[in-house]
Give the backbone structure.
Amino acid sequence: MKAIEIVLRFKEYLETERSYSKYTVLNYLKDIEDFRNFLKTNGFADLLEAKPNHVRYFISFLHGKGYNERTIARKMSSLRSLGRFMVREGIADLNVFADISSPKIKKTLPKFLYYQELDNLFEAIDVGTVVGKRDYAILELLYGTGMRVGELCSLRIQDLDFYNSSILVMGKGSKERYLPIHDHVKSALLDYLEFSRDELLKKNKKGSTDILFLNFKGGPLTERGVRVVLNSINLKAANALKISPHMLRHSFATHLLDGGADLRSVQELLGHENLSTTQIYT
């Protein structure tokens, strides 16, 4: 079997069985492609003939190129996943990546926003405009529920349950969870649905869509689009820091725990599979 066939089968596995997002799959494939290019450049064999020494040489090469420990560890995680897949599918007898240690990652506390910085963001939005109502609802949802940006972009109108004050979210691995929405979030969503979404949808030349958040052309808002929205809001707010959707998620978790919420509850709200992932906020 050719290496490209293995990679394509692995890609299908990530998309179908693991239900990984398009962005995550692309990262896996990029890491594998980097390793294959390294093997080719140095005259080594391709994936099927790769040896543990080749993997160690690759790690040294990455260090020499100035990659940090976190990036190298991620690349090794991608390769180990590929190795497990090859063994499972009977393509290889041994996972050559399994026993290669990744560099130790220095633990850093997640960056979060202080309350004044959050207030600056909300106050910077002109809610008198169609786009402003949408942006306000996005900011309320990201901070008010702690959902991931990918989860926000995949929300459909029918996922909203205003009667029970909850929202159905499709998380990693296609795992569903219900998130409570407080009055501020509900109000922002209702305002967007009543006065903004239909106006944006009119610009969609491809027809209707049930995706909740729309871009200025009336199509589904992408993760990249959300980041552009947040950067624009932050520029107007004149906050002296860069923000991201994940920083709002960090802020949600940090503020909940500071307010006395228990770790298990925060874990469930964030959709973390392991409690240890949530413990970084403590």
